[in-house]
Amino acid sequence: MTIQRWKITLEYRGTDYAGWQRQIDVPSIQQAIEDAITKFCQQEIPVTVAGRTDAGVHALGQVCHFDLDYGDRPLDGYGLMKAINYHLLPQPISVIYAEPIDNEFHARFDALNKLYRYHVIQRPSFLCHDRGAAWHFKRALDVEAMHEAAQLLLGKHDFTTFRDSECQANSPIKTLDRLDVTKREYDAYGGVEVIFETEGRSFLHHQVRNMVGTLMLIGEGKWKNGDLIAALEAKNRGAGGVTAPAEGLYLARVDY
Amino acid sequence: MTIQRWKITLEYRGTDYAGWQRQIDVPSIQQAIEDAITKFCQQEIPVTVAGRTDAGVHALGQVCHFDLDYGDRPLDGYGLMKAINYHLLPQPISVIYAEPIDNEFHARFDALNKLYRYHVIQRPSFLCHDRGAAWHFKRALDVEAMHEAAQLLLGKHDFTTFRDSECQANSPIKTLDRLDVTKREYDAYGGVEVIFETEGRSFLHHQVRNMVGTLMLIGEGKWKNGDLIAALEAKNRGAGGVTAPAEGLYLARVDY
């Protein structure tokens, strides 16, 4: 018996899934991956993920690991990727890289850094090409002010104001290493794409979406920087802005 | 009676449509737009388009015009855009700009320049986020060689080699003003997005897709620049490469 641990990197469109975690009677990313692995090797193999994503949230570089006993047959990363993808199609979930890794590797506990992106498209008319892939926001936004305010959230804080009530983390204290807000032209008639990029070792449940929703108050001019600081210091979810919709959020990269 | 001519700019995802032109029993972009206008004003109003697009082809900036008798009621571009969009939803077709224009304006005949983009995503694993929005190509491409070769097609030529047999243009002679091929990183594991941008006053039927399909032979190293020149000079569709799939093509902009 030869058990090999594998690390796989995944892309997925979360729109039609109830999130990463396996649930009864609703499709999940975890179930799709585990089912595809079972179809490939005829074994039921549990998969461990770097970070669970919520319903509707997307991934560009989710990571998971699992242990596979493939006997003495040859198997490399490319072959495993192709085999799992064959069984994932036509679902919008794709293995983009697979590699054998030492048996001590743990997708969740060994993650040193995560990069999330959040996309807002600001314009009056509804979205065609990016429907379900970004938050469509109609009112004008001061993106420079949002970026400036975002810097106030960097560092080690009690992020209770940006923490979902169902968050299971032991502590609300996290260190935020980066939160950049940039914009680019989206269409020829003033449409703007606003891109949030944030990095840190770990995040609370809904933390990114709650930070985005709160920074929109700055962008709309409803809040000043002092209001953001007061909200953070209130350590109270009720003091923050709305939770930005799941459809704009991407787990972009996990670093080890 | 006050007839006003309107110019509208459209975005659409062509995937589930038989193309621009109205046909019996299959959904078309033209029918969707004309039906939405009828629902708004209770009149059957024909719409004239800058350039018809084929089944599955997308638009970021298609342009059309139509004449509307709205009596003495006030109507501005923003209001017209909102009204048509209200009736277009939930289809992936959206008016992104609407403006009153003088009655001599003609969306097709007055077009001075068109910009098309074609997207190829080159990597082994299938696409999740851009499925139906780009040509998924698995083999490696030399993008610099493609760009260099593309410059040989600039200028005034007989483009019969890149012309669909069903093309209804009077002449195969066209002037190509720009054909740039660039690339950018698509994912963290070597995936590359290749973007073709081409401009000219007008194009033959399938010209862009046939030029793209032929330049892929250069990218794969199957052809040298001399082969491309020979194909152009052959003035024979059979001398060119394949027609690139519709799903990668976008009518990006029409200039007047």
Put the structure in a nutshell.
Chain A has 256 residues and is α+β, with helices and mostly antiparallel strands. The first copy, chain A, is built from five helices and ten strands; from the N terminus they run βαββαβββαβββααβ.
Task: Describe the protein in words.
- The structure is a homodimer of 256-residue chains.
- Chain A has 256 residues and is α+β, with helices and mostly antiparallel strands.
- Chain A folds into 2 domains: 3-101, Alpha-Beta Plaits (2-Layer Sandwich); 113-255, Alpha-Beta Plaits.
- Helix content of chain A is 22%, strand content 31%.
- The first copy, chain A, contains 5 helices and 10 strands; from the N terminus they run βαββαβββαβββααβ.
- Chain A has helices at 29-41, 77-88, 143-150, 207-219, 225-234; strands at 3-12, 48-49, 58-69, 93-101, 113-122, 135-137, 155-158, 173-185, 192-200, 249-255.
- In chain A, strands 1, 2, 3, 4, 5, 6, 7, 8, 9 and 10 form a 10-stranded mixed sheet that branches.
- In chain A, helix 1 packs across helix 2 (77-88) and helix 3 (143-150) crosses helix 4 (207-219).
- The radius of gyration of chain A is 20 Å and the shape is globular.
- The model of chain A has no long low-confidence stretch (mean pLDDT 96).
- The A-B interface holds A 9, 11-13, 58, 60-61, 78, 81-82, 85, 89, 92-97, 123-129, 131, 133, 187-189, 191, 253 and B 9, 11-13, 58, 60-61, 78, 81-82, 85, 89, 92-97, 123-129, 131, 133, 187-189, 191, 253.
